[in-house]
Amino acid sequence: MERTALCKRCNTMYSETKPEPKCKCFVPTGRQSGDNQERHHRFSQIVRKFAQRFQQCSSGNESTNVYSMNVKPSGTGSAETHPRKRALLCGVTYNKKKYMLKGTVNDVKSMREFLISQYGYPEECIRVLTEDEKEDIFSPTKKNIQESLKWLVEGSESGDSLVFYFSGHGLRQPDFNNDERDGFDETICPVDFMQEGMILDNEINSTIVWPLKKGVTLHAIVDACHSGTILDLEYIYNPELNDWEDNSAPSKARKSTSGGIAICVSACDDDKMAADTTAFTGKAMAGAMTYLMIEMVNKNAGITYGHLLKRMREMVEQFNDKSCLGKFLPKVFYHRKIQNALLSSSEPFDVYEKKFLL
């Protein structure tokens, strides 16, 4: 006659007379003595509880913000010391809008990894603003970008390296203050720019360029349309002449630092459009300038600013050559060619001597 028993752990009836009694928490490993079977029951129950906890943790608990790129400092004290490295990375997608962009978050992820792996930026010293972040304070709104720009330069001291990165839409509007040589102010567009307005180059300059003390270096990398002089810096590099051109304000308005240096690499001239494309990655959308800059630096350790711009221009020319791409060009670039990056600075320097260091 078959004897049955009730498992006290999973409340399942199982046969004691069969060679391998089974229940929900029994792990078959051949014939078992009573003690061995009890041990397997206990071990299996622990495994089941662990699996349940793991499933709960990975089933989309919004409060844990698993995918956040913002890392809080460990411990009770500040993780920052001097000299320090600090970065603000903004990627604006404009979700569900007609002017939505698809590659900006990819750009931010690439730039964040680039700063950490290539230049040793601490994770907790990199602030990321994207629409993928769960906390409202990390949404790329006008207010959050403005406050984060102040955070970027706050308390900076000699030896500090700061980075401002923006991937999103850029626009321009007429200049009524006579402080722009081309008659236009350049802007970046926060996620709520249709309601709250754009952030002008004048404001960016006064917020993160003016406060730079002697020995502090700021790099701005802006992958947006009309971004050429988005920091309103006093010098623009002309690669054709291998010389710096004057970009000071006709009105004599201040554009200078307080002794530090600000350098900006932007995606295109003030009157040009930037490209968001899959041409370089194959699948994922990405800003052309961001991809090329990271790719060139990763492949050429110790590259100078001049050689970086030169090699980026060579890559752009290759991809803009219709004889190479044929019918593929209009489809990928939406009938626009990739534009060459532009370099501007608060002071002139030898671009073929100075190494590109963030």
TrEMBL record:
A Pfam family of this chain: Peptidase_C14
Biological processes annotated in GO: proteolysis
GO molecular function: cysteine-type endopeptidase activity
Source domain of life: Eukaryota
Span of domain Peptidase C14 caspase: 84-321
Record-level GO cellular component terms: cytoplasm
Name of the protein described by the UniProt record: Peptidase C14 caspase domain-containing protein
Organism: Lithocarpus litseifolius
